[in-house]
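Quick one: structure for this chain?
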Amino acid sequence: MKLITAIIREEKLDDVRQALIDAEIERITVSRVSGHGQQLEIEVQRGKKVIPNLIPRVQIVIACNDDYADVTINAILRTAKTGLHGSVGDGKIFIQDLPECIRIRTGERGGKAI
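Got it. Here's what it folds into:
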């Protein structure tokens, strides 16, 4: 099992969500988050350069069986990219092994619980 976490631009959420649904990945968790990576959007306010601390983003978390990991990752890669070649700030995908999953309602464990 894998735990896939993607940090993407807010405006790409609907496209990514639809791509995941089309790929039969329907169980996702979405959170609003803030952060920054390589991009530093320098603004000028009252004649001074100001670097904002955090930029709003969306975090998508998906637990999936190993067979669905590549399908999930490819759906996100295909739709979260800005333009043909992408741009700085399009986001990141983190993939972790998920040693256990338990459905609280039934007590099922492992891949069946996902």
